[in-house]
Recover the amino acids of this structure.
């Protein structure tokens, strides 16, 4: 089975022993494609993905790899954006950005602050009760949003009563 992905103008592509590097205007997305059933090749302005057979497993690997490459290209053309909402009912919570860390203070009245790490290439904007994360790598932006959401996860309490936390409310996901 063979699939081709057209590379938009202005994006530089390098392929070295399975490592695909896409670059545009100082932004870089890279990923390693080293599955034994998949071969990745470059031809002019196309990325060619090919599998030996057409089994369900090989089709699954091929389609997943295509999605990864399309997300890499989409991120270079337009940043991905996740929005999170700060919700509290009893204790007002404060959120600060300190370099590559997000610091959450006074969560459920706790004296100890909660910290979570975000990726360096993700830009953070905190306005009122909304946190906006932007970046060109969807995996870094999504994992950073999940880390923030997970830092305020409450276990052992009824979620209907204890509704405090930081929650993902919007994912920027336009079809290509």
């Amino acid at each position: 089975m063979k699939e081709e992905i057209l590379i938009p103008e202005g994006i530089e592509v390098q392929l070295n022993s399975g490592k695909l590097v896409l670059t545009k205007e100082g932004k870089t997305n890279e990923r390693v494609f080293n599955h034994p059933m998949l071969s990745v090749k470059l031809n002019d302005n196309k990325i060619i993905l090919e599998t030996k057979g057409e089994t369900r497993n090989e089709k699954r690997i091929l389609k997943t790899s295509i999605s990864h490459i399309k997300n890499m290209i989409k991120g270079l053309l337009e940043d991905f954006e996740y929005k999170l909402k700060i919700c509290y009912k009893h204790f007002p919570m404060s959120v600060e950005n300190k370099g590559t860390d997000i610091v959450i203070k006074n969560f459920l009245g706790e004296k100890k602050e909660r910290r979570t790490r975000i990726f360096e290439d993700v830009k953070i904007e905190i306005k009122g009760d909304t946190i906006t994360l932007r970046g060109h790598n969807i995996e870094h932006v999504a994992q950073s949003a999940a880390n923030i959401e997970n830092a305020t996860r409450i276990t052992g309490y009824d979620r209907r009563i204890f509704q405090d936390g930081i929650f993902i409310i919007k994912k920027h996901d336009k079809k290509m």
Remarks:
- The first strand starts at residue 2 and ends at 6.
- The first helix runs from residue 56 to 77.
